[in-house]
Amino acid sequence: MLKVGDVAPDIELQTDAGETFHLSDSKGKRVVLYFYPRADTPGCTVEACEFRDHLKKFAAKGAAVVGVSPDKPAAQAKFKTKFNLPFALLADDQKAAAQAYGVWKEKSMYGKKVMGIERTTFVIGPDGKIEKMYAKVKAAGHAEKVLSEL
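and the corresponding structure tokens:
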């Protein structure tokens, strides 16, 4: 499991726009990298819209916001358009980033064990190291909490 102070694993994923995103291209900038279970579901929508609504405040603190889920690029694009999300959504359909960050976990859903994303946020500093981690996130109010601790 990753911890504060570790170098953030580099990721290379396709964005909602079909472009390739490399985390290493963000070196020198602070990145709020948040993993969510599935596009356009209730909790994920709440979380994404809160990041959207506070995006200018994140930018004022020098932080970019990037969302990651195991959805395909087309699903990410639809989610982004539907809720007017002004930040990149990354398609981790092979779960490589989720596994590298330790957020692909066994979860209980309706009494059954399933594998999925554990809602988790990482604040990655300009030096590429993890500055903060938020595990088992509750969607409502999360963006504000991250913002208050930047």
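(Above: one complete record from the training split.) The chain has a mean pLDDT of 94.
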